[in-house]
Amino acid sequence: MPIVKVDGVEIEVPQGATVLQACELAGKEIPRFCYHERLSIAGNCRMCLVEVKPGPPKPQASCALPAADKQEIFTNSPMVKNAREGIMEFLLINHPLDCPICDQGGECDLQDQSVAYGRGHSRYDENKRAVTEKYMGPIVKTVMTRCIQCTRCIRFAEEVSGVEEIGAIFRGEDMQITSYLENAVKSELSGNVVDLCPVGALTSKPYAFEARPWELRKTLTIDVMDAVGTNIRLDSRGRQVLRCVPRINEDVNEEWATDKTRHAIDGLVRRRLDKPYVRVNGKLVPATWDEAFAAIKAVDAGNSVAAVAGDLVDCETMFAAKALLAKMGSTMLEGRQTGMAYDTSSLAAVNFNTTIAGTERADAILLVGTNLRWEAPLVNTRIRKAIKKGAKVFAIGPETDLTYKVEWLGDDLALLGNLPEAVTEVFGKAERPMVIVGGGALKGGHGAALALVDTLGLVKDGWNGFNVVHMAASRMGGLMLGYAQKGGIADVMGAKLGFFLGADEVDFSQFAGFKVFVGHHGDKGAAAADVILPGVTYAEKSGTWVNLEGRVQQGERAVFAPGDARDDWSIFRALSEVLGHTLSFDSLAGLREEMYAAVPALRHQALATFDWQMPSLDTKGEGVLAGYPIKDFYLTNAICRASPTMQRCSAELLHGEDFAEAAE
Predict the structure, then answer these.
(1) Which of the four, 193, 314, 403, 548, has the lowest number of CB atoms within 10 Å?
(2) 3-state SS, residue 332
(3) Which N-terminal residues, if any, form the signal peptide (predicted)?
(4) CATH number among 3.40.228.10, 2.40.37.10, 3.30.70.2860, 1.20.1250.20, domain 353-469
């Protein structure tokens, strides 16, 4: 490994490291605009100039220069200082003085670095150029006069999201960044360019002019829009969440988040259930908590009681409902509300065993009945990285654009028992083979997919290539807590009393019993309920979620719920007293201790370990995949459906509706 000297300090750096990386290993801060750790090197902003010996007597771009043995690097010499001041002057030639009205103000790289590395005055008095605004869709707001052509957004679109709709036109001083034909960018990850932009050229359209960063209270929590478990930070002011941004977690989401994760938050304050309701003469009327509990107590259900968990609920809520049902003598628990029924006797057989980060290491991948671009977009980006390292991808299912090259085999699950020779040949040579089974293929293909473990050699020392991708944030936690019946939700539809925990996707016409909806939005579940008990959203509770790879994660409360809404677990605790089946815990800490005793894996925020064993299932793949479970990426749950931003994304990006933009 090369040994270099940085400002007189000798350090050893990895082979292939750049001078910029060597400087950072030595603890030196190097300014940059175009360089980003997760994108290819562009070397076009020149802000990272350093002095290098031996070498030419001029500053050099450290991001694009390989570190070499016996190299001397100077990061704060007079030559470097003058060069950085000059570069900053050039960058600011055409930059407008928009800081007072710019949404990037207070967290802007250009502001920070102009103070730290720029001159205290300007020598330019020529007219600044102006660039017309570009239209990039309902998520990204553009003020392109501020753009410094760092090209981060272009490289992100090409390398990470795979939707190459952002590029540059013209040359030199006339260069402009724009979307293709100035149309909306049709990527479910487009909001990440706002975080990447080092100036205020690309900002968040739904968040425009809402708040300054120093006004916001920041809360660390977990996203529930899919089963990836994206680590996020909710920025709130008063009782409203104004912004959602991703946190860095290399094992889960790196530093990305989907547009749904970022912008469904405006649905948190719309269509909310803020008081109990009871159905009287066919109509829902407002009630007190006592009246709502009394209506439930009046139901003569005995032990014919069921609980159905929705897609967004936390483990604490599911455990509280399970504890109440246990006191009432029932074990009818189900979390697969859309009707999926697959074997859950072995959690390893329904887990994403390779892990999200491990996906990058796969060298042969077979997708079975999954549209990963919608079901788990941040797993899809990992597959793109695996392809860059040489992995080959095959897929069974209806053809769709996954943003990378896929060899489609057909849409018949019988193919699982008779894979083409081209597939078996690639997998036979693979060191780290991988199969990903989607929810749509589990019913007719779970056993056949598990049979591939032996035929394709998916499980080896230090490697498990069998994976199931879930779409609901509550799914793995629910399975660990026993929310699964052998026949799926059909097995609980005959109950006389049903608790629906934010379960809006259930076919309520099949449930003839008394329906109690415990949730936060007036959606399908509330419309069908006999009693509504207002609960809280993920932003208004401290909860535990388990992502699709079995990673246990906890989120914190960011804001308080509106009106009479209460924490879901406390609703079941209060109801248990009225029903005469008082639960033994009376605090969140007490509930968690009981939950940890029942399921020890939930105690630690880490990957839960499931012993690898395969259930005995029919290995014959049956059925033709006509489509994928998710029909509209932007409207998958009650919060999204209440969000004006998600409604517009769906209408414009998926259904082709046109929206007029007002001139500014």
Answers:
(1) 403
(2) strand
(3) none
(4) 3.40.228.10
